[in-house]
Amino acid sequence: MAFEKVSKVLLKIFGSRNERLVKSYTGMVERAGAFEDRMRQLDDAALKAKTAEFKSALAAGRSPEEILPEAFAVVREVARRTVEMRHFDVQLIGGNVLFEGKIAEMATGEGKTLVATLAAYLVHLTGRHVHIVTVNDYLAKRDAEWMSPVYHALGMTVGAIQADMDTAGRERKETYLCDITYGTNNEFGFDYLRDNMKTSLEQMVQGPLQYAIVDEVDSILIDEARTPLIISGPAFDDVTRYKKADQIARQLISLQSGYDRIKSQIDAAERRIANAQGELSEAKKDKDSKRIDKAQQAIDKAQQEIADAQARLTQATQYYEVEFDRKQVRMTDEGEKAAQDIAGMGSFYTGTNIDWPHLLQQSLRAHVVFEKEKDYVVMDGKVIIVDEFTGRLMHGRQWSDGLHQAVEAKEGVTVKEETQTLATITLQNFFKLYDAIAGMTGTAATEADEFMKIYKLDVVVIPTNQPCVRDDRQDVIYKSMPEKFNAIVEEINEISAAGRPVLVGTISIEKSELLSTALTKRHGLDHEVLNAKQHAREAQIVLKAGQQHQARNGQMRGNVTIATNMAGRGTDIKLGPGVAGIGGLHILGTERHEARRIDNQLRGRAGRQGDAGSSQFFLSFDDDLMRVFAPEWTVKALSWIGWEEGEPIYHSRISKGIEKAQKKVEERNFEIRKSLLEYDEVMDHQRKIFYSRRRQVLEGRHLREMIEEMIDATITSHCESILDKEYAYKCMLEWVRANFDVELKLSDVAEVEPREVEALVKERARDAARSNIALSLGEYLEDYADPSTWDVAGLTKWAMSAFKVNLSAGKVKNQSPEEIEEQLASAAGEQVDKRDCSPLAEFLRADFAVRRLAEWARAKFDLKLDTERLKDLNAKEVRELMLAETAEKYRRREIEYPVEFAMSMAYGSQGANVYGFESLAQWANKKYSADLSIEWLQNAKPRDVHEQLMRLSASYSDGKLEEEVTEKVRGLPREQLIEWANARFDASLRAGDLGDGADVKARLAEVGRQFMRRELADLERYVLLQVYDSTWKDHLYAMDHLKDSIWTRSFAEKDPKVEYKREGYRMFNEMLESIEDRVTDIIFRVHLEAGTRARSVWNVSQTSHDEVGQFAMAERQRAAAQAPQGEQKVKQIRLEQPKVGRNDPCPCGSGKKYKKCHGKDA
Questions:
Q1: Which own/partner contact pairs does 862-869 have at CB distance under 8 Å and 24+ positions apart?
Q2: What is this structure's pTM?
């Protein structure tokens, strides 16, 4: 208590931290103001010239802070002239806060759009591009066009990214080249992902992420922080399954209708009891015996109805269970059995049927808990999701996990293919990629801790230009929802009749629709509802929200607008003539939101720039948040002390208590966001590594070194594994497992003769077969004592397929289970004894490992190694030998491949190309300074041309390049040397790139070597890009499945988050190893013909703004997608090499079967 008093005294003396921060900026405001008169004396050209003057000053060593006051004064004057708006002093403070990389909290109507011009200009002067992030395309385009005169007058370029721009087109790229680029968080994030899917640097559009100013920063960095941006493509899904699942779901719903009717009767009776108990309590209070008897009779009657219904309910069958709060439906055991019978496909948990329980669950959800016109609408033959908070139509978005397809099947529209992730990033991790970010909003202070902990962003609350005179009234609390609802309708009618406009904020679309219906029926009141149906008119509706209109009776009434708390952000509500004089806009909140800042946003729609206004929230103890604040006993206690029905409560202590409850919920939500975002750390780490390596490939940096490292790693790992003393035994155990399905230990076969191993293997195999038969018989012989329950047909079929035993159905019925078992065991033993075990001796040969390594090297790199020589070398020496061989092989490839590539210009698969000889002559003369004529090339034999080009290529590899460079370095001055190098090697060198002394020669020689191996570098880039992209795509698909299933680890008392990180790390390492394996497989074999370009492995069908809730069961199905990229048919994949059978030897040379080696996960 004493500490609190001391704190209040200190606060009064020194002010709050925010007050001190704001005060520290006042000096800058005064210095900027001192420049104002001087700036007004300058003409437009002189003001524009200030930009170049500031840039020169910064280049000369002045800091941005030193020129900030004058720069702000320039922007202020330019804005006054071009858009007729002069920056207020508080707006200058806001601009300074943004430039420092902080969050400026500015009240609604304080001109945040204008404030951004200050910081954007100063950042531009430092040589950085600025991205200004808004919440939708409309605001991005509006703000860019609105502020463009300011930027243009300062000599800057400005543009706005729009979703309908071509994602790889010139317009989008040129917009990103602008000094200031407006756009939505979605578009900026998607372009980052799309750029990292492009196959050349020229196709990329976005450029570096240097500085971002995020408008409505709380909405983007808090509300949407956990929602990942996802680019997805078809997952080769059979869409006909959804229609069949829909038919089965309809039949299950029909079967459950009787059960649902009984449950409805019970629920209705329970509601009557609750109402009667309330009436009974009131009657006892009034000592009204007639009302007491009537209420008691109603209770008794309802209780009897419940008892009768409960008895009928026990006889009814429940086929599925529903959780409406989580929008989940789960089939019961009876439901699964019924569905299996309806489907007629046997068990759902065998073979290819295992997806059916999930398909049916999604179909049931589509029918039972997802409502048309509430959760979605159908337009133009497409299912379009309705945002549950704002009521906006989310065109192009799509529920994940097959739910969207289930809804489409329900509505009878075309069912889209299910998708897989091709690229993904959360908004939080995307904005962390920027060198610096800043933000603006009207409500950030309540989330200041989260901004600091997650983004290291400080929040500064900027004072308003004019004092806020809005009357924020105490909350009105009612006992029940109906009482509150009636009071709201009457309040709206009364205030509107007084001429004041009313903005009604609800927390859901459903509440908005109910309120609209009540206003129409009870008072016939004209009003607007901002929901999915009025999405296109959102801006117009919000603009009229502060106006008046003439009612049918001629009276001037205030406009009534009903919207969700989040609707209309970014659009100011301006008061109509005379409205301010009668009290201004009135804000009526129908319920408190769980986040205080959402309530503050709603309040902030009124009282802008000193206008009159008021706000008030109507609550009831049935509200979700009130249940957190006050348990049920509170209502009973208040009734005991005389709280009458329909009587409201006003008390500041209750309002403060509600805010404390909101704070608790905010803290809980922060922990949820924090937990969910930790899952994305796995993909964020992987994404950074992968994208950086892919970027290196696109830029062509150190590709040779990258491939050499891969070859080194592959050779090292195989030398270590194959030359290990236990390798032969491990191969033997794998062979035994694959051929006999028997598990042996190393100690069982170490230093044992092949015949002894064979005897042991066959003995174990017979025992295993007998055990398997004993277990499997139970599946076919349900009751050993009752042959009528036996599945004889299934048993005979299994016996034939497993042991080649032809059991007679007639005989089986007359045999005992023991006789059947013995017959099958005997047949299995015979099958085991017939199997060939001669390969066992091969594994035990002394030279098995070196022969296997030599076979692997020949298959992998086409190296011909002498096994006799390898026997005398240790593992390290063998590795060095193989690295030397591959290095020489790669050197030869650097000589040969450019010639092979060039030969394809003139000699293709269809014969000689007469038009290609000119290109070939130009290529050879340019690369080797040769003097080959087109006539000679046309008349010479292809073999002679090839030999001549090979001699030229070899000569440059053996020293001629260095000789040419040395001669030019000695004979040419520096400027001419650079001109020669650029012309000779197609380079773009500048004076500072060469260095001095010996560095000049070394640098030019390196440029020359890159020129000589350009064709091979293009091949390396092509191979690496194709392998990287296809492997990453497969990895993302595997990660999709991991996300969907990782929660099941909790059943084994394991933390799903830890397991996800561990499994993700393992899978990523396997992906990197797979890349090395695939690249080294083909890098010595593959060739490109002239004109070949890298092809994209990405088949994008949609972009989506998903929910990370797939990690949390309660939110798994709430994901949605945005901005479709055009649906495409997936081309059939054709194998260029013969397909490897699952039982064939693995091509890698391991000795294992393909299904046990690299085909394990195929």
A1: 862/889, 862/1084, 862/1085, 863/889
A2: 0.71
